[in-house]
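Supplementary Data S3. Sequence and structure tokens for construct A.
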Amino acid sequence: RLWQSLGKNGLTGANPQLAWPAMDMTDESGAIVLRVDAPGLKSEDVSVEVTGHLLIIRGSRSEQRQEKKTGWYRHERVTGSFYRTVPLPSYVDADKIEARYDQGVITVTVPKKAGEGPRKIPLAT
């Protein structure tokens, strides 16, 4: 289910049809790692928090107002606030979650508890 519900995304101040920000979630040895594209943000524009079994990533990008000298040809860069909510499985250690922001990417590492996690059940024939 975790992979099927990669998380809800919320957009305010932006076109809700856009999937901003894009997020990848991978199962790496001993941890679940989330990478969220957030170019142009400052680290103080981003927050990562855990509430119960939910990981919440929030951020905002302000529109850079320019003096109106010419008209727009195209305006695609998204501005406004965003949040991504990701349900955490019971086998992760929420107290040891780490987050960093580097070169426009928010990386959140969610360690798994030792010896826990999903296990395969063999089918009897």
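Construct B, processed identically:
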Amino acid sequence: MRATTHSRQLLPLLAIATLGVALIGCTPWATYPPIEGAVSVDNPTMHPIPDLMGEALWYVWEMDGGEGALVFNLPPGTRGLVYDKVMDKLGGGSPMRDASQDAYHVTNVRIRTVDAEVDVIRRNDMGDPELLTLTFKQNLLKGYMVQDVRVWRYEVDEPPPYYVPETMRAGQPVRGAAGDE
């Protein structure tokens, strides 16, 4: 009788432990954009990549006062669907379309089970581009949360705009583009 009661008390704990291991096992191990020799993803629309990009952009924009338009740039070759998902996460914002725009640039996303890092380039108080690495930790109830921000003290170049409207990606000219009658 006593062994049965003890077994019933352990059953919920065993179920929680099994669920925890299963959730961790389903969490990706990936790098975007792909790096030769690293575990990479070719489809950045996969969760949690757009969410991490959006969270990182929002966090850095808020660090900078959260005022003005949030213009952002994603890694080269990122599809328009990813930009759309990031804008949904941000509740707005717009892709960088011109090199003269002041923008936040996501350059890399690294996910290692429950840990993730996102590199963002922004302009510092003196107007110079600087690289930040945001470290995230996954919380089962709240998703990924920023744990740390590292500001790197070396020179970086500000990337050019990489966004290409979907109509241009499909090989169709954008209405009103040069040469369009």
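The longest strand covers residues 129-139. The chain has a mean pLDDT of 82.
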